[in-house]
Amino acid sequence: MKYTGTKAMRYSVGNLSISHTLLAVVAYSLVTVLLIGTYLHFAWTRHKERASTEAIVLAQSLEAMLHPEHVATMAGGLTDQDNPGYKSAKESLMRLVETTNPIRFAYLMGIHNGNIIFLADSEPVHSPDYSPPGQVYEEADDDTWASFRTGRTVLTGPATDRWGTWISVLVPVQDPESRATIAVIGIDYDASDWYAGIWSRMVPDLMVVLSLLLLFAALTRIWLLNRTLKSNNEKLNLSESLFHSILDQAPIGIAIGCDCNIVSRTIGDFPSVNRMFEKIVQRSENDMRSLQWADITHPEDLEQDRRSFEQFKSGEINGYTMEKRYLRPDGSIVWVNMMIATLLGGPGPISMHLCLIEDISSRKQAEEELRESERSKSVLLSHLPGLAYRCRYDQDWTMLFVSEGCQALTGYAPENLINNQVLSYNNQIVPEFREQIWSEWKRVLSQRRSFRYEYEIKTKTGERKWVLELGQGIFDRDGNVEALEGVIFDITELKKREAQITYLNERDYLTGLFNRRFFEAEKARLDKQAAWPLSIAICDINGLKMINDAFGHAEGDQLISDMARLIQSNCPGDYLVSRTGGDEFTVLMPRADSEQALKLVTQIQHAVETYNRNEKVYEVSLSVGYSTIRSGDGRKAIDEAVKAADAHLNHRKLLNQKSSHNAILSSIMATLYARSHETEEHGQRLTSLTGMIGKRLGLEQKLLDELELFSMLHDIGKIGVDDRILNKPDRLTPEEWEQMKLHSEIGYRIAMSTPELEHIAGYILHHHERWDGKGYPGKLMGRDIPLASRILAVADSFDAMTEDRVYRRAMPWETALEEIGRCSGTQFDPDVAHLFMDLILAQKSMLDNEEA
């Protein structure tokens, strides 16, 4: 919480005051320590110097008692033990150590052979520390040598040798005359005793310092206590300000209660309730002083509140929290989250407590609305004709939630699918749809679009159902898919109705075959080279109108149905049969070449013949035309193929005696036979001969049909030639011959004017052309002459030579063949001529064998 104005300043000043106090204490302490340290240092130095001076004076006094002349007589060996000078010095040294504390050793040293040796010491002979005269002092250091070299008294620092650590005073003994140093008197003090002596002299100084420290500590404490008291007063004032500020500005209601009273009457000048509490319950503090909390608690919440409060008051619990309702003066209620906690109390029963309340009416209303929404959603989902779900975005479609409709739709209880406990939803999808559904979800999620897809599932009983799934992705803040949500409906019946409607839209009502509309749609679907080669067959019932007129339309309808079944039964499964007209059927044959198409046509014709062998009042005639495309410009090529098949159908109708189209051909042929020497037998012989050649050449059925019609009508132009020329028994004059040669062009014009004959007009025009180019009317040469015209030229010449004419007798077939062989390469196509000769010879040989 931030503080402003006087409160904030007071808080800042308090902190600053505490900081200054600490700095002052630290500064005073440092100064005191520095002064005491300085004082002790000077005292130590003074006592140390005093002890050093006393030791030096003592050593010099000893030196004064020794006679240099006696010292000079000492040789530095064991022989000195009998020397009076040695004895005198030994006694003096021993007396000094015995009488002067804390001297430990006293000794007299000299120099012999470059080494410092002991001349005499203070130890008795039997002492382990005794040094006999002449013993080398191996531990001699620079301080020891300095006394010999300089002739001055030396006080050494702590030095360690074989006997211990010592403070030593070295006083030189000089020759009175030469002033040369002849020996050095040494006095050793144990280092610890030396320093202990100094510390003993420091005791008064330490007592003074300790007294000063105690005085400083007492003064500091008094000062700190004074500062603390001042600081506590400031904190108390600050705490009071904070209490009022928090109480007034707290976003929750706060009341200090006593026993069953809402607010306490014994809290003094402090308020017992804040403004937010008054606002929530809509009562003032004065109003609440005369009320108990039970008076404004909703009756339905009162019992629970009483039980908890009794436990709290008896000390069983330290506090409690509950959601309850308060009654406002206007009769309305307010939901609060209430917390009761201890405020004051001791070992006995709790008297005062703290009551904190938070207005949760909005939350309660939202929870109620949510419960109502969940209830409504639950009712809606339970009556949903399918299931609602929430699932993970994985290929198992792991379900996180599934509505009750799952049982009716799939046969599985919802919990069977949750987290794939029994099986995953993906297991129920028919396999051929699984990858499609995954791909479609990936597509719509990448575009943030809704999902809509129809597919099949397999239920627990094995039943297949069509379903419609509608769903959407749930994304997090980073755009990642958290889950998928949606609904799945059973559309099996809808699919059945759609299938029925589709069937009715695509099927012919009478035959059950596909209708014209579906046929056109399939042509568009098969407009792909993957379906090529593509063959098309068109079947037409000959004379249907006459059957309707003679036997009634019911019989005609029955015939149409019979022919539909007959055609359908002969077609493989991938062939599509449609009724494209009243008496017309069309078969689309994907990936079928002309040989397969001819095979189908032959099967259908044989089936019609079998049908006619039944006891029928009339004989059924069915004409079939077909064509094949191997490549081309898509739909355009298919349309051209349909036209070609239709044209072929018309050709077959002309050749079919039961067809109404044959009436045209019959009338023309009747006129021709009546005006010329041509007979119907001649046309049939030519049809047989040309058909034999065409089959041997491997021509398609369409060309064979054209060759058959051409053989019958090649001389149709003769009906435009004068009868005198046609029937003249004598040789024609050149002028008459020119008139006769016009029959090719006349026949061409007649065929071109008749749509059913237009496709053979070119054959008729050129059937008198020669291989060497000397024929008429176009003087075509070699392979420029149509193949059908070249075939007819050979067959017509052979028939003319082997049959009687009005102007000559027939010649033997051997002679006729010789003539054809002679004219091969000039008049006739040599390949066709030789093939024909081989065929006739083989035929005659077969006849001779049969007669034999």
Task: Describe what you observe in this structure.
- The chain has 5 domains: 139 residues, Beta-Lactamase (2-Layer Sandwich); 115 residues, PAS domain (Beta-Lactamase, 2-Layer Sandwich); 114 residues, Beta-Lactamase, CATH 3.30.450; 134 residues, Reverse transcriptase/Diguanylate cyclase domain (Alpha-Beta Plaits, 2-Layer Sandwich); 192 residues, Hypothetical protein af1432 (Orthogonal Bundle).
- The chain is built from 29 helices and 19 strands.
- It has 852 residues and is of the alpha+beta class.
* Termini Cα gap: 135 Å
Provide the β-strand percentage band.
15-25%
CATH level-3 fold name of the largest domain: Hypothetical protein af1432
Assembly type = single chain
Instruction: Report the helical percentage.
Output: 40-55%
In short:
The strands form four sheets. Strands 1, 2, 3, 4, 5 and 6 form a six-stranded antiparallel sheet that branches. The protein has a five-stranded antiparallel sheet with strand order 12-11-15-14-13, with helices on both faces. Strands 7-10-9-8 form a four-stranded antiparallel sheet, sandwiched between helices. It has 852 residues and is of the alpha+beta class. The N terminus is likely disordered.
Question: Keyphrases for this structure?
Answer:
52% helix, 6-stranded antiparallel sheet, alpha+beta, Beta-Lactamase, single chain, 5-stranded antiparallel sheet, disordered N terminus
